[in-house]
Amino acid sequence: MQTFWYIVRRLLQAIFVVFVVTVVVFCLLRALPGGPARGILGAQATAAQIAEFNRQQGLDQPLFQQYFMYLGTLIHGNLGTSYTLNTPVATLIAQRLPKTLILTIMSTILALVIAIPLGMWQSWRRGRAADYVTTTVALVLYSTPVFFLGILLIMLFSQDIPLLSSQAPQGDGIAVIFENPAAMVLPVVTGAAGTLAVFSRYMRSATVENLQEDYVRTARAVGTPSRAILLRHVLRNSLTPVVAMLGYYIPVIFGGSLVVEQLFNFPGMGLLFWNAAQSSDFPVLLGCVLVISIATVCGTFLADIAQLLIDPRVKGDMK
């Protein structure tokens, strides 16, 4: 019962957070100088044309009235219509989101598959040359901007050694991704690099901390093999902070996808958001931010639930 009310409380918090995000983003977009009319109609648009555009889109109404109109359409599942593409925003997002999700999931899985064993191995080799070398490589990866790493990989593996394509799979639908998986290698590796560095550091720190706990000393004292101590006891407890961070890291992963999609011309949410920002396409911008916000709160919510399942000590915090 305690777990049930904890989940209900977290759900209500998530809904409130999404609501606040929509208010903040809506107000910030409306506060931008010039408004969308100039971006849509061009620099040569007359004052009368701009006024007519604002009237048609309801942009001449008071801010709170505009927001409640937007909220009213949102409740019915209508995210508005793109100013530039004249297409429902929900349709545009439905076309692009699966591609971004696939790119994000593949990058995250690649990062975790490497980061978790790497972090544990580093902790086991703590203070040795191998630990220093891998720690330095992780810090270099973490400090390298995504766009620079992407350009570097393109120059190395598309130009100097022409093994991989510098363009992600093009075309509509997600089937194109699986028809040409080799074209996804560079985007996925670029997106995974920073995440890998961060989570390997978290995993190393958590494992080092757990190796100093009493239960590990007890296991050693009774003759439990080192590998069994790591895999049966330390791994589970060390995963807790990594799982928690994964939820909070979703906005960063999405932000990285925006850059990766730009670099490799991948037609996902990131490219859609970028093009909308260039043309002040407010409905598309709001729709993208809303989806990313929902993904973020869902990620943190699932991370909290996963923490609850992995680490029974978290139940103590629910009281």
Question: Which keywords apply here?
Answer:
single chain, 319 residues, mainly alpha, 14 helices
Protein architecture, described:
The protein has 14 helices and no strands. With 319 residues, the chain is mostly helical. The protein is globular. It has helices spanning 2-31, 35-41, 47-57, 63-75, 89-124, 129-143, 146-160, 175-179, 185-211, 214-221, 226-248, 250-263, 269-278, 282-310. Its main location: membrane. Residues 97-303 form the ABC transmembrane type-1 domain.
**Distance between the amino and carboxyl termini:** 12 Å
Total strand count, please?
0
Question: Overall mean pLDDT score?
Answer: 82
Outline type: globular
Low-pLDDT windows of residues: none
Q: Give helix % range.
A: over 70%
How do the helices and strands follow one another from N- to C-terminus?
HHHHHHHHHHHHHH
Radius of gyration: 24 Å
Number of helices, counting only DSSP H or I runs of 4 residues or more:
14
Beta-strand residue fraction: under 5%
Output the structural class.
mainly alpha
| Biggest beta-sheet profile | none
Organism: Bifidobacterium fermentum
Subcellular location: Cell membrane
Protein name: ABC transporter permease
Membrane topology: Multi-pass membrane protein
